[in-house]
């Protein structure tokens, strides 16, 4: 299996330790999954790897890495909204989907040390799975990251570097280390194996409900779930398993909205923004590295973008908690954005919203 550069088209074996193409372009996987068939789902495996025939995975390294991630329940919030409880995972966030898949790949090619930059959840997930795989790990997080997330990362034996400034600056500092020291970049934006795991969000939903909801709310910072979900939905549609692409309602923080602004202008690249502090720290990405790809998917499927009102996030969190579900601030922004969408567009029934992070991770 090869990587293909999204910029120049050059092929590179997936065994490479380089984070990107020599031209600077990001990698995509040369992988087309087989046509969806329930017979290809491994019903004896109680994790997201029951769908591994539809993921770009080679070998059996995943067996030594998995901690039973995925297979999260879908529950009712009200008559219009269902919640997929993705914080019911080993590190209490949806990023376990991508981390388990990426670390399985890393183990299969013999990676010994890795680094990553994160606002918290992805860093914690990579740290946990790297520890399980025996891979040394160093995580860079921006100042203002929840202390709970930092403690969780450190508990797995990873070194944590708190970087002053924005989330984007934190990424620049980490990438400098990758360039200068040659550490493996276990990054959820650069490495497409991460998206292969995120596809399971859709496969699980389809298997559990026997259908895909009419509306799916997806938070977008760097767009890991967005890319994985779109790829999986395209796969189901191409397989004839679904006859209609659902409406995706993508959301950003109103204090950091480069993709929302780009869609407003129908631009092909993210807008330049000056990120402001936001409670939705998990999606506070001013410069999404796969922004062009995200926008291409947006226009291809007429995806709606909406902003989560900052002053409504805590209110949304309280409403969800009053129904027994305790989520982190970024996750509450999903519901706040959904309510804002309904105010503008009217009732929006048959909607699925991800509960991507547990509330205990953002009590700060």
TrEMBL record:
<keyword id="KW-0456">Lyase</keyword>
<feature type="domain" description="Tryptophan synthase beta chain-like PALP">
    <location>
        <begin position="65"/>
        <end position="357"/>
    </location>
</feature>
<keyword id="KW-0663">Pyridoxal phosphate</keyword>
<dbReference type="InterPro" id="IPR050147">
    <property type="entry name" value="Ser/Thr_Dehydratase"/>
</dbReference>
<dbReference type="InterPro" id="IPR036052">
    <property type="entry name" value="TrpB-like_PALP_sf"/>
</dbReference>
<protein>
    <submittedName>
        <fullName>Pyridoxal-phosphate dependent enzyme</fullName>
    </submittedName>
</protein>
<dbReference type="Pfam" id="PF00291">
    <property type="entry name" value="PALP"/>
</dbReference>
<dbReference type="InterPro" id="IPR001926">
    <property type="entry name" value="TrpB-like_PALP"/>
</dbReference>
<dbReference type="InterPro" id="IPR000634">
    <property type="entry name" value="Ser/Thr_deHydtase_PyrdxlP-BS"/>
</dbReference>
């Amino acid at each position: 299996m090869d990587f293909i550069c999204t910029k120049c088209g050059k092929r590179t074996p997936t065994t490479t330790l380089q984070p990107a193409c020599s031209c600077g372009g990001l990698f995509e996987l040369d992988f087309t999954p087989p046509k969806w068939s329930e017979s290809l789902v491994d019903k004896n495996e109680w994790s997201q790897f029951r769908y591994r025939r539809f993921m770009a995975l080679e070998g059996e390294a995943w067996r030594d890495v998995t901690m039973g991630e995925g297979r999260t329940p879908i529950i009712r919030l009200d008559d219009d909204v269902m919640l997929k409880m993705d914080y019911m995972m080993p590190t209490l966030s949806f990023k376990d989907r991508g981390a388990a898949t990426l670390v399985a790949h890393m183990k299969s090619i013999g990676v010994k040390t890795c680094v990553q930059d994160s606002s918290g959840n992805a860093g914690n997930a990579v740290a946990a799975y790297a520890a399980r795989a025996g891979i040394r790990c160093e995580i860079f997080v921006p100042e203002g990251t929840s202390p709970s997330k930092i403690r969780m990362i450190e508990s797995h034996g990873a070194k944590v570097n708190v970087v002053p400034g924005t989330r984007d600056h934190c990424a620049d500092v980490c990438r400098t280390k990758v360039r200068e020291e040659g550490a493996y970049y276990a990054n959820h934006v650069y490495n497409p194996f991460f998206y292969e795991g995120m596809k399971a969000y859709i496969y699980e939903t389809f298997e559990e409900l026997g259908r895909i909801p009419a509306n799916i709310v997806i938070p977008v910072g760097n767009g890991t779930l967005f890319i994985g979900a779109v790829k999986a939905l395209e796969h189901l549609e191409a397989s004839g398993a679904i006859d209609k692409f659902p409406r995706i309602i993508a959301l950003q923080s109103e204090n950091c909205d480069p993709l929302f602004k780009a869609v407003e202008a129908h631009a092909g690249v993210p807008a330049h923004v000056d990120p402001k502090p936001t409670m939705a720290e998990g999606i506070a990405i001013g410069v999404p590295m796969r922004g062009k790809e995200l926008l291409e998917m947006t226009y291809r499927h007429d995806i709606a973008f909406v902003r989560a009102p900052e002053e409504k996030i805590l209110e949304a969190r309280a409403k969800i908690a009053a129904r027994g579900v305790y989520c982190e601030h970024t996750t509450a922004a999903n519901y706040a954005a959904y309510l804002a969408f309904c105010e503008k567009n009217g009732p929006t029934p048959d909607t699925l919203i991800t509960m991507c992070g547990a509330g205990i991770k953002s009590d700060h």
